[in-house]
């Protein structure tokens, strides 16, 4: 069993009040379930099949081996994807389930998609509520949560020069916060 992220269309998307297609997209990637390959009888013994160790990243610096070792699928920001669950029938010798030859239909395969899981991969959020939602629900965002806890003790009046207006870190955009930090250290 493996999951891959399939491009829904060939566009790079841009958000300017609404999603607008602009350029061509790049290829998709895959993630082999840690228990694969195993028999159908073994899969049927599970109450559920979880992909909880799967991580999505936009880090194009990762090699294919690093990506596989870190349980990641590399996505391209601003591209539209749909996760696809693939079940490959394996008899006897265990081939590479997701090699290009097997994706071309040499092994019997069943593929499932769920339209409600379609999404556009993004790396920056203009809406602070969405940013906080991602931090709160992403099991790999511990560093962001720790940093948010540290912000609670931050004193915006602690600098001598520049604008001494208080900054509410929860009600400003990323750009506002960066501009404030820049003014603080000038």
UniProtKB/TrEMBL annotation:
Transmembrane portions of the chain: none
One GO cellular component term of this record is:
chromatin
Cite the InterPro entries for this sequence.
p53-like_TF_DNA-bd_sf, T-box_DNA-bd, T-box_sf, TF_T-box
UniProt xrefs under Pfam families: T-box
Name all T-box domain ranges: 1-146
> What broad class describes the main subcellular location of this protein?
nucleus
Q: Which residues form a coiled coil?
A: none
Could you identify this protein by its name? T-box domain-containing protein
């Amino acid at each position: 069993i493996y999951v891959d992220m399939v491009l829904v269309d060939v566009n790079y998307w841009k958000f300017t009040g609404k999603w607008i297609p602009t350029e061509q997209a790049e290829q998709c990637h895959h993630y082999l379930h840690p228990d694969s390959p195993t028999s159908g009888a073994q899969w049927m013994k599970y109450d559920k099949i979880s992909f909880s160790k799967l991580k999505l990243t936009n880090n194009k610096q990762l090699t294919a081996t690093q990506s596989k070792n870190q349980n990641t699928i590399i996505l391209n920001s601003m591209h539209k994807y749909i996760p696809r669950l693939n079940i490959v029938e394996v008899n006897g010798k265990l081939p590479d389930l997701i090699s290009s030859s097997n994706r071309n239909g040499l092994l019997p395969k069943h593929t499932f998609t769920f339209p409600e899981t379609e999404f556009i991969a993004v790396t920056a959020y203009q809406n602070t509520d969405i940013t906080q939602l991602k931090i709160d629900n992403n099991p790999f965002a511990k560093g962001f949560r720790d940093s948010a806890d540290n912000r609670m003790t931050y004193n915006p009046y602690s600098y001598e020069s520049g604008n001494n207006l208080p900054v509410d870190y929860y009600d400003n955009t990323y750009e506002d916060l960066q501009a404030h930090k820049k003014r603080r250290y000038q």
